[in-house]
Amino acid sequence: MSLSRFLSLCQIPLSASLGVSPDKSQFFKYESVSLSCEVQGKSAGWRLKRNTVSGERSDCGRRWGKPQGSSCNVSLIPSHSGVYWCESGSGEHSNAVNITVHAFLSVSPDRSQFFKYESVSLSCEVQGNSAGWILKRYTVSGERSDCGGNWGKQQGSSCNVSLTPSHSGKYWCESGSGEHSNAVNITVHAGAVILESPALPVTERDSVTLSCRYQGTLSNLTADFYKDGSLIRTETTGEMTIPAVSKSDEGLYKCTNSEGESPESWMTVTVPAPIPSPAVLVLSMSLPRLLCSLLVGSPYLLVTIILMVKGCRSRTQG
Protein backbone atom coordinates (compact mmCIF):
# COMPACT_ATOMS: atom_id res chain seq x y z
CA MET A 1 0.00 0.00 0.00
CA SER A 2 1.41 3.43 -0.97
CA LEU A 3 1.85 6.12 1.65
CA SER A 4 -0.68 8.34 -0.08
CA ARG A 5 -3.18 5.48 -0.16
CA PHE A 6 -2.60 4.74 3.51
CA LEU A 7 -2.90 8.38 4.51
CA SER A 8 -6.09 8.67 2.50
CA LEU A 9 -7.59 6.02 4.74
CA CYS A 10 -6.84 8.29 7.69
CA GLN A 11 -9.08 10.95 6.25
CA ILE A 12 -12.05 9.27 7.89
CA PRO A 13 -14.99 11.68 8.09
CA LEU A 14 -16.44 9.83 11.09
CA SER A 15 -14.56 10.31 14.35
CA ALA A 16 -16.86 7.86 16.13
CA SER A 17 -18.74 4.69 15.30
CA LEU A 18 -21.83 3.16 16.90
CA GLY A 19 -21.32 -0.39 18.15
CA VAL A 20 -24.33 -2.70 18.64
CA SER A 21 -24.27 -5.79 20.88
CA PRO A 22 -25.62 -8.26 19.97
CA ASP A 23 -24.70 -7.30 16.41
CA LYS A 24 -28.12 -7.40 14.75
CA SER A 25 -30.83 -4.95 13.73
CA GLN A 26 -33.99 -7.04 14.29
CA PHE A 27 -35.30 -7.62 17.82
CA PHE A 28 -38.40 -8.79 19.67
CA LYS A 29 -39.99 -6.79 22.47
CA TYR A 30 -38.19 -7.08 25.84
CA GLU A 31 -34.92 -8.18 24.23
CA SER A 32 -31.91 -6.14 25.38
CA VAL A 33 -29.31 -4.31 23.32
CA SER A 34 -26.16 -2.42 24.28
CA LEU A 35 -25.29 0.57 22.08
CA SER A 36 -21.74 1.94 22.42
CA CYS A 37 -20.15 5.14 21.11
CA GLU A 38 -16.68 4.03 20.00
CA VAL A 39 -14.76 7.31 19.86
CA GLN A 40 -11.15 8.00 18.85
CA GLY A 41 -9.77 9.59 22.00
CA LYS A 42 -12.04 10.84 24.77
CA SER A 43 -15.72 9.91 24.52
CA ALA A 44 -16.79 12.70 26.87
CA GLY A 45 -19.38 14.94 25.27
CA TRP A 46 -20.69 12.24 22.93
CA ARG A 47 -24.33 11.21 23.34
CA LEU A 48 -26.38 8.38 21.93
CA LYS A 49 -29.40 9.73 20.10
CA ARG A 50 -32.33 8.25 18.21
CA ASN A 51 -35.15 9.23 15.90
CA THR A 52 -38.04 6.76 16.21
CA VAL A 53 -40.49 5.84 13.48
CA SER A 54 -43.05 7.99 15.29
CA GLY A 55 -40.78 11.03 14.85
CA GLU A 56 -39.51 11.32 18.43
CA ARG A 57 -35.89 12.52 18.64
CA SER A 58 -34.23 12.13 22.05
CA ASP A 59 -31.11 11.11 23.98
CA CYS A 60 -30.39 7.92 25.91
CA GLY A 61 -31.41 8.32 29.54
CA ARG A 62 -34.42 10.49 28.81
CA ARG A 63 -37.44 8.18 29.08
CA TRP A 64 -35.51 5.30 27.45
CA GLY A 65 -32.23 3.49 27.95
CA LYS A 66 -29.78 3.36 30.86
CA PRO A 67 -26.47 5.19 30.25
CA GLN A 68 -23.35 3.38 31.48
CA GLY A 69 -20.10 5.08 30.53
CA SER A 70 -20.05 5.46 26.75
CA SER A 71 -22.76 2.78 26.38
CA CYS A 72 -26.54 2.77 26.59
CA ASN A 73 -28.42 -0.38 27.63
CA VAL A 74 -31.96 -0.63 26.29
CA SER A 75 -34.76 -3.09 27.05
CA LEU A 76 -36.65 -2.84 23.78
CA ILE A 77 -40.32 -2.29 23.02
CA PRO A 78 -41.91 -1.70 19.58
CA SER A 79 -41.95 2.11 20.00
CA HIS A 80 -38.11 1.99 20.16
CA SER A 81 -37.90 1.12 16.44
CA GLY A 82 -35.93 3.80 14.63
CA VAL A 83 -32.50 5.21 13.73
CA TYR A 84 -29.72 5.42 16.37
CA TRP A 85 -26.41 7.32 16.21
CA CYS A 86 -23.74 9.01 18.34
CA GLU A 87 -23.36 12.78 18.30
CA SER A 88 -20.80 15.12 19.87
CA GLY A 89 -21.46 18.46 21.47
CA SER A 90 -20.01 20.13 18.36
CA GLY A 91 -22.41 18.28 16.06
CA GLU A 92 -20.12 15.51 14.77
CA HIS A 93 -21.93 12.26 13.94
CA SER A 94 -21.11 8.56 13.94
CA ASN A 95 -22.62 6.09 11.54
CA ALA A 96 -26.36 5.48 11.98
CA VAL A 97 -27.97 2.10 12.73
CA ASN A 98 -31.58 1.13 12.05
CA ILE A 99 -33.18 -0.97 14.79
CA THR A 100 -36.54 -2.67 14.36
CA VAL A 101 -38.53 -4.16 17.24
CA HIS A 102 -40.92 -6.70 15.80
CA ALA A 103 -44.47 -7.61 16.69
CA PHE A 104 -44.83 -9.21 20.09
CA LEU A 105 -47.47 -11.54 21.49
CA SER A 106 -48.36 -10.58 25.06
CA VAL A 107 -50.39 -12.73 27.45
CA SER A 108 -52.68 -11.48 30.22
CA PRO A 109 -52.48 -12.88 32.81
CA ASP A 110 -48.82 -13.73 32.11
CA ARG A 111 -48.77 -17.45 32.78
CA SER A 112 -48.50 -20.59 30.72
CA GLN A 113 -50.99 -22.85 32.58
CA PHE A 114 -54.73 -22.37 33.08
CA PHE A 115 -57.69 -24.26 34.47
CA LYS A 116 -60.58 -25.19 32.22
CA TYR A 117 -62.98 -22.24 31.62
CA GLU A 118 -60.47 -19.61 32.76
CA SER A 119 -60.00 -16.68 30.38
CA VAL A 120 -56.89 -15.28 28.74
CA SER A 121 -56.30 -12.20 26.58
CA LEU A 122 -53.70 -12.52 23.82
CA SER A 123 -52.55 -9.27 22.16
CA CYS A 124 -50.47 -8.57 19.06
CA GLU A 125 -48.31 -5.56 19.95
CA VAL A 126 -47.14 -4.02 16.70
CA GLN A 127 -45.22 -0.80 16.00
CA GLY A 128 -47.52 1.40 13.90
CA ASN A 129 -50.66 -0.03 12.33
CA SER A 130 -51.61 -3.49 13.61
CA ALA A 131 -54.09 -4.01 10.75
CA GLY A 132 -53.36 -7.22 8.89
CA TRP A 133 -51.89 -9.01 11.92
CA ILE A 134 -53.80 -12.11 13.03
CA LEU A 135 -53.49 -14.26 16.13
CA LYS A 136 -52.92 -17.88 15.14
CA ARG A 137 -52.52 -21.13 17.00
CA TYR A 138 -51.40 -24.72 16.52
CA THR A 139 -53.04 -27.04 19.06
CA VAL A 140 -51.67 -30.26 20.51
CA SER A 141 -54.23 -32.12 18.36
CA GLY A 142 -52.68 -30.64 15.20
CA GLU A 143 -55.31 -27.99 14.39
CA ARG A 144 -53.97 -24.74 12.92
CA SER A 145 -56.48 -21.86 12.89
CA ASP A 146 -57.06 -18.12 13.44
CA CYS A 147 -58.73 -16.31 16.32
CA GLY A 148 -62.39 -15.62 15.58
CA GLY A 149 -62.97 -18.81 13.63
CA ASN A 150 -64.22 -21.52 15.95
CA TRP A 151 -62.41 -20.12 18.98
CA GLY A 152 -61.72 -16.75 20.61
CA LYS A 153 -63.32 -13.34 20.27
CA GLN A 154 -61.37 -10.76 18.27
CA GLN A 155 -61.29 -7.29 19.84
CA GLY A 156 -58.97 -4.88 18.04
CA SER A 157 -55.48 -6.37 18.11
CA SER A 158 -56.44 -8.70 20.99
CA CYS A 159 -58.13 -12.09 21.16
CA ASN A 160 -60.09 -13.06 24.28
CA VAL A 161 -60.38 -16.79 24.86
CA SER A 162 -62.45 -18.83 27.32
CA LEU A 163 -60.22 -21.87 27.61
CA THR A 164 -60.87 -25.59 27.38
CA PRO A 165 -58.25 -28.40 27.29
CA SER A 166 -58.52 -28.55 23.47
CA HIS A 167 -57.08 -25.01 23.38
CA SER A 168 -53.68 -26.22 24.63
CA GLY A 169 -50.99 -25.42 22.07
CA LYS A 170 -48.71 -22.77 20.56
CA TYR A 171 -49.94 -19.22 19.84
CA TRP A 172 -48.35 -16.44 17.77
CA CYS A 173 -49.11 -13.33 15.69
CA GLU A 174 -48.67 -13.31 11.93
CA SER A 175 -48.93 -10.58 9.30
CA GLY A 176 -50.40 -10.89 5.83
CA SER A 177 -46.84 -10.93 4.44
CA GLY A 178 -45.81 -13.85 6.66
CA GLU A 179 -43.93 -12.00 9.43
CA HIS A 180 -44.10 -13.70 12.83
CA SER A 181 -44.05 -12.58 16.44
CA ASN A 182 -42.66 -14.62 19.30
CA ALA A 183 -44.59 -17.81 20.11
CA VAL A 184 -46.16 -18.70 23.47
CA ASN A 185 -47.13 -22.16 24.72
CA ILE A 186 -50.37 -22.41 26.69
CA THR A 187 -51.55 -25.49 28.60
CA VAL A 188 -55.18 -25.86 29.76
CA HIS A 189 -55.43 -28.45 32.53
CA ALA A 190 -58.56 -30.41 33.43
CA GLY A 191 -57.02 -31.53 36.74
CA ALA A 192 -57.01 -29.89 40.17
CA VAL A 193 -53.50 -28.34 40.26
CA ILE A 194 -51.57 -25.99 37.96
CA LEU A 195 -48.21 -24.25 38.18
CA GLU A 196 -48.41 -20.49 37.76
CA SER A 197 -45.19 -19.59 35.95
CA PRO A 198 -44.43 -16.83 33.41
CA ALA A 199 -45.44 -17.55 29.81
CA LEU A 200 -43.15 -14.76 28.57
CA PRO A 201 -39.34 -14.72 28.99
CA VAL A 202 -37.99 -13.28 32.22
CA THR A 203 -34.80 -11.21 32.38
CA GLU A 204 -31.73 -12.33 34.28
CA ARG A 205 -31.57 -10.87 37.82
CA ASP A 206 -35.35 -10.32 37.94
CA SER A 207 -37.35 -11.77 40.83
CA VAL A 208 -39.69 -14.62 39.79
CA THR A 209 -42.39 -16.32 41.87
CA LEU A 210 -43.84 -19.74 40.96
CA SER A 211 -47.18 -20.67 42.56
CA CYS A 212 -48.63 -24.15 42.97
CA ARG A 213 -52.34 -23.42 42.66
CA TYR A 214 -55.23 -25.63 43.69
CA GLN A 215 -58.28 -25.12 41.46
CA GLY A 216 -60.14 -21.90 42.27
CA THR A 217 -57.76 -20.74 45.01
CA LEU A 218 -54.20 -19.58 45.66
CA SER A 219 -54.04 -22.17 48.44
CA ASN A 220 -51.46 -22.37 51.20
CA LEU A 221 -51.03 -26.09 50.69
CA THR A 222 -47.44 -27.28 51.07
CA ALA A 223 -45.98 -27.82 47.60
CA ASP A 224 -42.98 -29.57 46.11
CA PHE A 225 -41.35 -27.82 43.15
CA TYR A 226 -39.45 -29.70 40.45
CA LYS A 227 -37.06 -28.50 37.75
CA ASP A 228 -36.16 -30.81 34.86
CA GLY A 229 -37.62 -33.74 36.80
CA SER A 230 -35.68 -33.19 40.06
CA LEU A 231 -37.09 -31.90 43.36
CA ILE A 232 -35.52 -28.48 44.06
CA ARG A 233 -37.60 -27.06 46.90
CA THR A 234 -40.52 -27.64 49.29
CA GLU A 235 -42.53 -24.59 50.35
CA THR A 236 -45.26 -24.54 53.03
CA THR A 237 -46.84 -21.45 51.42
CA GLY A 238 -47.28 -23.12 48.03
CA GLU A 239 -45.08 -20.44 46.42
CA MET A 240 -41.41 -20.51 45.43
CA THR A 241 -39.54 -17.28 44.79
CA ILE A 242 -36.26 -16.96 42.90
CA PRO A 243 -35.03 -13.50 44.03
CA ALA A 244 -32.51 -13.02 41.20
CA VAL A 245 -33.12 -15.42 38.35
CA SER A 246 -30.14 -16.56 36.25
CA LYS A 247 -29.70 -18.46 33.00
CA SER A 248 -29.14 -21.65 35.01
CA ASP A 249 -32.72 -21.34 36.31
CA GLU A 250 -34.10 -21.80 32.78
CA GLY A 251 -35.84 -25.15 32.41
CA LEU A 252 -38.94 -27.30 32.74
CA TYR A 253 -40.92 -26.79 35.98
CA LYS A 254 -43.84 -28.53 37.69
CA CYS A 255 -45.27 -28.79 41.20
CA THR A 256 -47.20 -31.24 43.38
CA ASN A 257 -49.31 -30.88 46.52
CA SER A 258 -51.77 -33.03 48.44
CA GLU A 259 -54.45 -32.40 45.77
CA GLY A 260 -52.46 -33.49 42.72
CA GLU A 261 -49.72 -32.66 40.22
CA SER A 262 -49.45 -29.84 37.70
CA PRO A 263 -48.36 -30.16 34.06
CA GLU A 264 -44.82 -29.10 33.17
CA SER A 265 -44.01 -25.66 31.72
CA TRP A 266 -40.79 -24.21 30.33
CA MET A 267 -39.41 -20.99 31.82
CA THR A 268 -37.14 -18.94 29.54
CA VAL A 269 -34.49 -16.59 30.96
CA THR A 270 -32.98 -13.90 28.73
CA VAL A 271 -29.55 -12.41 29.41
CA PRO A 272 -29.02 -8.65 28.82
CA ALA A 273 -26.48 -7.78 26.14
CA PRO A 274 -22.95 -7.44 27.57
CA ILE A 275 -21.19 -4.08 27.44
CA PRO A 276 -18.13 -4.37 25.16
CA SER A 277 -14.86 -3.86 27.05
CA PRO A 278 -12.36 -1.25 25.83
CA ALA A 279 -10.11 -4.08 24.56
CA VAL A 280 -12.95 -5.45 22.45
CA LEU A 281 -13.66 -2.00 21.05
CA VAL A 282 -10.02 -1.64 19.99
CA LEU A 283 -9.90 -5.11 18.46
CA SER A 284 -13.12 -4.43 16.57
CA MET A 285 -11.42 -1.60 14.66
CA SER A 286 -9.96 -2.35 11.27
CA LEU A 287 -6.15 -2.46 11.13
CA PRO A 288 -5.84 0.67 8.92
CA ARG A 289 -8.12 2.60 11.26
CA LEU A 290 -6.20 1.40 14.31
CA LEU A 291 -2.93 2.51 12.71
CA CYS A 292 -4.49 5.81 11.76
CA SER A 293 -5.49 6.45 15.36
CA LEU A 294 -1.92 5.69 16.49
CA LEU A 295 -0.46 8.04 13.89
CA VAL A 296 -2.86 10.85 14.73
CA GLY A 297 -1.96 10.44 18.38
CA SER A 298 1.80 10.48 17.63
CA PRO A 299 2.90 13.03 15.01
CA TYR A 300 6.54 12.00 15.59
CA LEU A 301 5.70 8.46 14.48
CA LEU A 302 4.00 9.84 11.38
CA VAL A 303 7.07 11.95 10.44
CA THR A 304 9.35 8.95 10.96
CA ILE A 305 7.28 6.79 8.61
CA ILE A 306 7.23 9.52 5.95
CA LEU A 307 11.04 9.85 6.11
CA MET A 308 11.49 6.09 5.91
CA VAL A 309 9.28 5.86 2.85
CA LYS A 310 11.10 8.74 1.14
CA GLY A 311 14.41 7.03 1.91
CA CYS A 312 13.23 3.75 0.39
CA ARG A 313 12.07 5.55 -2.75
CA SER A 314 15.43 7.35 -3.12
CA ARG A 315 17.42 4.11 -2.89
CA THR A 316 15.08 2.41 -5.34
CA GLN A 317 15.39 5.24 -7.88
CA GLY A 318 19.16 5.36 -7.43
Automatic annotation (TrEMBL):
Gene3D superfamilies: Immunoglobulins. The lineage of its organism: Eukaryota, Metazoa, Chordata, Craniata, Vertebrata. Residues 1-17 form the signal peptide. The keyword Transmembrane applies. Residues 191-270 form the Ig-like domain. Pfam families: Ig_2. This is Ig-like domain-containing protein. One of its GO terms (cellular component) is external side of plasma membrane. The keyword rRNA processing does not apply. GO terms for biological process: cell surface receptor signaling pathway; immune response. Keywords: Disulfide bond, Membrane, Signal, Transmembrane, Transmembrane helix. GO terms for molecular function: transmembrane signaling receptor activity. The chain crosses the membrane at residues 287-309.
